[in-house]
Structures are given as C-alpha cells and as structure tokens.
Amino acid sequence: MKNGTEIAQAKKFAQKNVLATIATVNVDTFVPEAAIVYYWYDNRNNIYLATLRESRKITNIETNDNVAIVIGNENSGKTLQFEGTSQILTDSKETVSVLEILHKNIKEHQPHLILWPMLQLHPQGICLMKVTISWFRFSSFTDPIFTVEGTGSDLLTGSMALE
To answer: How far, in Å, CA of 9 to CA of 36, rounded?
Structure first.
C-alpha cells in the first residue's frame, strides 16, 4: 500500500518547482538526449512542458513518445522521477490556457525573470508537450528520509490529493 502522505509530498514538490530535465531518445542514433525545460504539473497525472517546435525533443517524440523526467532541487534534498508517454498539444485553446498557467507558475517561482527566456528567443515557435505519467518515484534525502514509488493512477487517488 502506498503512503498517501508521501505521495501528497511528491505532488506538492512537483507543484512548487518549474524546471525539470526531460530525456527522449534520438530517432536515428537511439542515443538518449536530455534537456532542461519549464513545466507545469496539473496535480493529477499529467505534466505539461514548453519547448521550441524545432527542438530535438519534438522530433524524437514524434517517433517515440516515451519520455523520462526528473525534477530536482539542490536546496530541498528531494528528487522526483517520472516516466510516461508524451503528445504534442495541437488544440490552440488548450495550448493558450496551459501556456498562461505555465507562465504564471514561472513568474511565481522565479520572479527575478523579466521575460520568460524562451519568449526572448522564438516567441512564435513555442510548442507544448503533455506527458501522461505511468510511473513515478519520489525520494527525500532529508528528515524524514523515504522513497515512495507508484503508478500514474496512484497520483489520481482522491485520498492522496493535496488540499
């Protein structure tokens, strides 16, 4: 049985951070490729990531939609790992809505940024990915020390939701 308190801590950790590393697999060489991206976690079992349309990540997931994501914070002594399947958002209404939430989340957690860095580079080329979580592992290396592991379905359980 999963510990609901520990899963709630994992969800809270995902909500409080804005940067994650995503790993995809190159379609030609089968070599892993990783990059830091801004993200928003929907407090269920989805993570939304912003990247450039021309990025290697997008090319890779168009062929292989499996991804791995790691969220870490050197000050907290915690890490959160996810595996899941990704899709490129094509619905413009959903894309605008998620971008607004993502931008608000970044401003809240990184208020020193004057303009979202990606917008400085290519404001018209931003693309959103939605990752549906199939597996996660949350580790706390500070008091209390613990690791909790589960499926994306475990994140949906009502009794484990954050309040």
So the answer is: 23
